[in-house]
Design goal:
- It is built from 11 helices and 28 strands.
- By secondary structure, the chain is an alpha+beta fold.
- α8 (421-437) runs antiparallel to α11.
- It starts with 24 loop residues before the first helix and ends with a strand.
- The protein binds zinc ion.
- Zinc ion binds at residues 1-2, 348, 352, 371, 374.
Length: 562
Amino acid sequence: MSHTLQRGRYMRRTLVAACAVLLPLAAAAQVSARAPQQPRVWTHADTLRGSYNTPDRNWWDVTFYDLHVAISPADSSIRGYNAITYRVLRPAAEMQIDLMTPLIVDSMIQDHRALRFRRDSNAFFVSLLAPQHIGRHYSITVYYHGHPRVAVNPPWQGGFSWTHDSLGRPWIATTDQGMGASVWWPNKDTQADEPDSQRIALTVPDPLIDVSNGRLRSTKHHPDGTTTYEWFDANPINNYAIAVAAGHYAHYSETYNGIKGKLTMDYWPLDYDTAAAHRQWVQARSMMQCFEHWFGPYPWYEDGYKLIEVPNTGMEHQSAVSYGNWFQNGYRKRGSGLGLQWDFIIVHESAHEWFGNNITAKDQADMWLHEGFANYAEALYTECQFGKEPAAEWEMGKRRGVANREPLIAPYGVNAEPPGDQYNKGGLLLHTIRQVVDNDEKWRAVLTGLNRTFWHQTVTTYQVENYISKASGIDLGKVFDQYLRTTMIPEFDYHLSGDTLAFRWSNVVRGFGMPIKVTLDWPEFTMIHPTEAWQRLPLHVANPADFKVDPNFYVDVKEVEP
Ligand SMILES: [Zn+2]
């Protein structure tokens, strides 16, 4: 998801970010001046939604969702079913299926038999009749209908958006990251379990066209003046990536010669925005070129890449990136410096195809794996277009947008939303680690290796940080602990005395020993290895004012008395 201005002192379960790229400085200052956050009280419903290793969830592995939904803008209602195919991992007789109020389950059917179920808020517990044999596949079909929650502030507070385009024609979209896909369709609502593939068959009134994930398999017109658009996503997909986009769309496409061969790139602007799309959306090609270089092959050649115009700012819907950035560079006319030279939504949301969709955090608490990496991808795209040094300087400007009021990793098991710092601070952490690795080809191998190692998988932060340490050959455990699990920014304390530099780390976790570059031999930067204990090294600077710490490390620097 993309950034927004943070409003109010505390927004429950709303993904918001304070971003230097987007915020004017005055607003950024307000971020740090706000009152301390009130502790969140977690509810039974949060645990039902946010825990995946529970008795009613952990015995079955979703393999296929077969989703069929008829959408009625006339009365803002939906009706349909989802046939859930799963593999049994261990014997059980009860399963949890999620569907949010006020939607109503009509029936749950397995082997032509109606099953009994009880509702606990947004979770349903269904009693199975047939024995569930380990390793076998079964299917359960959930029929449902109702008026799904209307999105209050999409994409951050999501649900259904029943809007109109500028000609007054219906324009419908869904957004549900964070909130959960069960806001409009029944599923196992956790990021930890993805189907191997999914059908999305959506029926909309003529002449609306629905564009969803994967490839369009068929369109079927019905006598009642509706059409079913059958989309098929051939790869594992996180449930919040499944989306409706129904409107008066135009369509054009091109073929991109990528790392894995020919990739179809399909574009779906509203009909009257076709010329603007042809002008602005060429950046999808430069995005693809840059990110395949840095992250490895686009993860969904079978499903293609799509850009779809929507009535919200945009979302990283898998193989169907949604776009609402007014066909302009920057972020809805905001941004700063080089950030005004490219289209924020194309770059940021598409970066999630690698970090977010290819590699998905099992628990929302680890969402910095999506947003921190997508934020960092902005710097890499800037580097691809404008060169390494200008991009690094632009990236470090994000420091002003970090609030540092809460650690990046939120509580596990309750679908907790990490703070907005997961964007900028996550990006700054990765930019800093690149400096520590100090070898661009090795760093690129780390990023491509991540996407290869965790290809189409759901992961934890520990898996990712262990991989980065191993692939870089540097134990970064304390670095991750410092930046992800505390709000402390490492302080590089130093003192110059003649030809001697005294230095140490303070404000750090115990054992923190991140190397850092300083002008030991001016004007060259040399890597040194501070610890919490004072160390001394010979210094060669003509003038004490020439002593510099490499500004690409996200640290505070302080000259102190010894
Ligand atoms: Zn994002």
